[in-house]
Structures are given as structure tokens and as C-alpha cells.
Amino acid sequence: MFRMAPHHSPRFLDIVNAAKQSVREVTVDDVKQMLDGKADFLLIDVREDNEWAKDHLPAAVHLGKGILERDVEQRVPDLGTPMVLYCGGGFRSALAADALQRMGYTNVASMDGGIREWREKGLPLTNE
């Protein structure tokens, strides 16, 4: 069910599983296709600052999970804005997407597999 999960605690996995039941997930291939097709959506990297600085998807904006709920309304005032969130593997982004839905955002998805799968597929990354 969960990839690369042995190092995660059972309680963390419990809340991730609950979040994944209520959020829409998209695949890495879906996101690549959306980017290639110039789809109108906001791609949000919810990882920590040091992870973002190392590398991230070229079209992404950074709103780390630690500040997302605090800052998202200023950055994204329209609750219907299409958003795809990603993290390292899809766990934190599922939690973040769930939180945004509870805040009233209606078009939020989490990229399952995260940047780890994006990287494994050899897709483009930047550190700019």
C-alpha cells in the first residue's frame, strides 16, 4: 500500500492513510502531462526549505507544509484554484491537501510518489 514506508511510524501512517481516503491523488505521469499541456493549475512543493533548495519541479512554487495553512489564503485567494501538491513521496502532500480541503479549497490534489518518483523517471528538475 505505501511505498518506502518502513521508516515511518504507525501513527503517522494512520493519519496519512486517513488523508489519502479524502484527497484526490494524481500520478507523476498525470502531472507531467498537465505541465506539458500547459494546464492551468498551481503546482505547490510542500517540502522543507532545504529540500526545495536542493531541487524541485521547474513550474513549482514553494509553500512548505509548516507554513501552508498560514500563508495559502494570501497566495491563493480563490478557493476553486486548481492545485497539485507534492512532497518527497506523497505522504506530506496528502496531509497538506487534506488540510486545504478542510479550509474550503475545492480543487486540490496530491501527487502520489512525489519528487522521488519524478526523479526516478528522469524528469526535469531545477534548483533555481
Structure report:
By secondary structure, the protein is of the alpha/beta class. The chain has one domain: 3-Layer(aba) Sandwich (Oxidized Rhodanese, domain 1), CATH 3.40.250. The protein is built from 6 helices and 5 strands.
Question: Keywords, please?
Answer:
single chain; 128 residues; Oxidized Rhodanese, domain 1; five-stranded parallel sheet; 5 strands; globular
CATH class: Alpha Beta
The H-and-E topology, N to C, reads as: HEHEHEHEHEH
Average pLDDT for all residues: 94
Helix run count: 6
Sequence stretches where pLDDT stays below 50 over 5 or more residues: none
Short structural summary:
The chain is an alpha/beta fold and 128 residues long. The chain is built from 6 helices and 5 strands, in the order αβαβαβαβαβα.
Q: What's the arrangement of secondary structure elements?
A:
Layout: H1 10-22, E1 24-26, H2 28-36, E2 42-45, H3 49-54, E3 61-62, H4 68-75, E4 83-86, H5 91-102, E5 108-111, H6 114-120
Parallel strand pairs: 1-5, 2-3, 2-4, 4-5
Helix pairs in contact: 1-5
